Amino acid sequence: MTKIFYDHLILFEEVLTELDSYELEPEERSELVILIEENLHHTVLDVILTNLPKEQHEVFLAEFYQTPHSKKLLVFLETQAGPDISAKISQAVAKAKKEILSEIKNSHSRS
Amino acid sequence: MAARKRKPKLNAALLRAKLKLKNQAYESAFPRKHPVAHQFLSSHGFRPGKIREHTAKLIASGALAGSLLMSTGPIINTGTTTSPNNNLANVSSSNLGTVLASHLREILPPVGSWQIDPDKEKKVAKELKNIYGVSATGELEGNRLAQIYGRMGAEQHLPRFPGDSVYAHGQLVEKGITPGRGAWGYFVPSQDQMSPELTQLEKYYVAVPTLYLPDWNTNQPYLKDWYKYRKVVVVNPANGKAIVADIADSGPADWTGKHFGGSPEVMEYLGINYGMQNHPVVLMFLDEKDSKVPVGPLEYNVKEHEIAMKNQT
Asked: Is A55 exposed, middle or buried (0-12, 13-18, 19+ CB in 10 A)?
């Protein structure tokens, strides 16, 4: 799998475990995983842009676009958005995962 | 022994729909919440949710080398205003660019895929007509450029007459002046023949790769006359800003990776004079019907719009 600098903050094993407790076609599972991860990427970027000063948005995105794996990005964010940015991302991701788990549990077939 | 309770079956379609909805809601709110980031991401055809795919593409293209924190941001200045006609779009005047940009995003292919089919070309022209009221076309009088969507790079000022200097241009002198003349030669043989109209033609010029036209060598006298100062509409799809410009130079060369060139004033107005100064634009001929539209920024006439909106209510 390709690497993104915040990968360690969006581990969603518990969501996958829950998903795998159901019988899903491989294609179905694959599509759901992509959508779940997409949701987490949105969550992370929202936290970053909300906490990063607006004048730094383009600076960050230019680097993120070119080198999404770069560890420099987290250093940059810690300097510009605050040293607790990782904690804020983890917190938001945890909340998003909770919501996704709830969506899974509320998506049972009636039959 | 008690029977083990069976777990209910997951409705994958329902879950997929819910997740898609969440993602769509995020993408819809994004431009309002993070406008600067939205502009950047749109101009690069980059969707945050698809970062994994983007990373995979980077690895595939070997482009992961290098890591520069770019420090320059877009400098978008407004220029003179022009009202092409009274064909008013029914949207807030302040949002015209944003509306056009969001519509173009739906029509244009991702950055890097520069060819647009005729149907999409018509849709782009229709958007320009609806939003800015100008008639633009990819093909005019049987003439067509190799593409209407591509990267525009920064050009320098052109010498307008023998002895012209960059300082005589007055604005954006730091951009320099080309050592040679433009593709059509000097605008006038001497300074005393300059007119305000010609000054504008140099100010808002673009370069298009006429040299690569298939019939350039066989049909040159006609084509040269046809393309000389031919008016075009140029749009930055990232912010919806549009400008009427004229073709006053040929280029850029294929190897540069750029498809069009823009004068310092064109680049500045469109907001593409930052970073590598090499950003996507849409460039179409201005239809003859609108040949009286002067070169320069296509700023919407706010007062005109307000009056029209009042009349509609």
From this structure: exposed
Distance between CA atoms of B272 and B199, rounded to whole angstroms? Answer: 22
Q: Pick B120 or B275 by higher pLDDT.
A: B120
- In a domain? residue A1: no
The answer for residues whose C-beta is within 8 angstroms of residue B108's C-beta and 6 or more apart is B116, B120, B124, B149, B237, B280, B282
The tens digit of pLDDT for each residue in A44-99 reads 999 999 999 998 998 999 888 888 888 889 999 999 999 999 999 999 999 999 99
Contact B149, B43 (CB under 8 A): no
For residue A90, give both structure tokens: 């983890």
As a whole number of angstroms, the distance between CA B84 and CA B133 comes to: 7
From B10, B23, B59, residue closest to A42, measured CB to CB: B23
* Domain containing residue A99: 7-105
Domain count, chain A: 1
Q: Is residue A2 part of a domain?
A: no
CA distance B20 to B26: 10
Q: Which position has the token pair 């969603």?
A: A12
What's the angle, vertex CA B98, arms to CA B95 and CA B101, rounded to 5? 150
Contact assessment for residue A71 and residue B81, using Cβ atoms and an 8 Å cutoff: no
Token pair in block for residue B146: 């190799």
Q: Which domains does chain B have, with CATH numbers?
A: 16-61 (no CATH), 93-312 (2.40.40.10)
Residue of B nearest to A26 (CA): B12
Q: List residues of chain B with CB under 8 Å from any CB of chain A.
A: 7-12, 14-16, 18-20, 22-23, 26-27, 33-34, 36-37, 40-41, 44, 46, 48-52, 54-56, 58-59, 63-64, 66-71, 73-74, 275
Residue B161's SS3 state is coil
Which tokens is B128 given? 């320009």
Beta-carbon contacts of B5 under 8 Å, excluding residues fewer than 6 positions away, are none
Q: Which two tokens stand for residue A94?
A: 């945890």
Q: Is residue A78 part of a domain?
A: yes
Give A30's contacts (C-beta < 8 A, 6+ positions apart): none
Specify the 3-state DSSP secondary structure of B190: coil
Asked whether residue A88 is domain-assigned, the answer is: yes
User: Cα–Cα distance between A97 and A99 in angstroms, integer?
Assistant: 5
Q: What pLDDT is recorded for position B278?
A: 86
The C-alpha atoms of residue B110 and residue A8 are separated, in whole angstroms, by 30
- Angle at alpha carbon of residue B246, lines to B241 and B251, rounded to 5°: 100
Query: Residue B189: pLDDT above 80?
Result: yes
